[in-house]
Amino acid sequence: MNGTQEEHKLSKLDARSCRLDMSKLTLTLTESPKELPPPETLKFGATFTDHMAIVTFHPSKGWSAPEIKPYSPISLDPAASCLQYSSTCFEGMKAYLGADGEVRLYRPDLNMRRLERSAQRLALPPFNGDDVLELIKRLVMVDKRWIPSFSGYSLYIRPTIIGTQSGLPVTASDHAILFIIMSPSGPYFPQGLRPVSLLAIRENVRAWPGGTGGHKVGGNYSPGFLPQQIASSQGYDQVLWLFGKDAQVTEAGGMNFIVVVKRDDGDGYDLITAPLDGTILPGVTRSSCLTLAGDPCFQQATSLRLHPMEQVYTMSDLTEWSAQGRLLEALCIGTAAIVAAVHKIAFEGKVITLPEHESGLGPVGVALREKILAIQEGRDEYQGWSVMISE
Ligand SMILES: *Cc1c(COP(=O)(O)O)cnc(C)c1O
Fold this sequence. Notes:
The protein has helices spanning 3-12, 81-85, 108-121, 129-142, 225-233, 284-293, 296-302, 315-323, 363-376; strands spanning 26-27, 51-58, 62-63, 67-70, 88-90, 93-97, 103-106, 154-163, 176-185, 196-201, 238-243, 248-252, 255-262, 269-273, 306-310, 327-334, 338-347, 350-353, 386-389.
């Protein structure tokens, strides 16, 4: 960052104007609470809870008093920045109800720092992520009855910021709305733990150096809808995003991607994922998998000797490892699905197939998924990753 950008950032991050005054929170409860849908009917992000949180930013007044109120539409000027220029970013996180009846969030600080960075990248008004986290916790407790009480189920939380400046000049929005909506969720993929298929494509790229791929900004996603539709029409579940002439492997759909490769020195397995070079979304699940894989206690408990690696690898690497019988698992990882196995990857008319396992996931996938789920649901204490919400 150069000097002027730095100064600009500092002046915008005026300590007062980025705070949400939680002491002014108002709570309006719905008069018509919805009936809870049966958990087995839940589709990802299709049903929303009774309430939402909302707070608006005005350039001379800062953030308004936070509100929790019944879930309802938002009214916007047709010339609003977010509608015209996609000045919108979001987060995806979950609240879990443990068998002990306690509600927990998983590494929410990482989501808040990422939301701060995404908003900054779009020159949206600054805010204090810890205040937003406080608001999230209050909202979750208001709609606590919506958290399904089954293992593998949770309440998906979608904090969102939109630029609401009205007018067509192509400039930063200095008005914004920050809102939080929540959706009870079950397994991400309709087929549950069944492995997914990927179509690796060259025609479109998800992200590029200097772009916004490392941020959770709205504009990253809609350009992926058409490729996703094409992949679906050819019978594939997700797109595998590549980059560069050498077809570097980056991410799968809206998830990070990890492969498990048997080492040729006999010392266990390499767990390989693309490095955070600005084109890869720094996933909380990705970071968790890398940390766990490198943890001697985890390795011992699971009898898996793992070597986590963040490195560039290509479709020819995958093809070669597969031909050598060393490509054992490919995993899509993210908050929504946690860990999902891949059973085939199609690329330029050829198909790489992966070993299939009875449970859907291979040994590394199972170990990571079970451990992360246990931490999320409060059955396993690990480095303070799981944060209890106290009433
Ligand atoms: C959200 C997201 C991920 C996963 O991040 P988590 O923090 O693990 O949920 C990965 N890739 C993309 C493109 C994403 O939007």
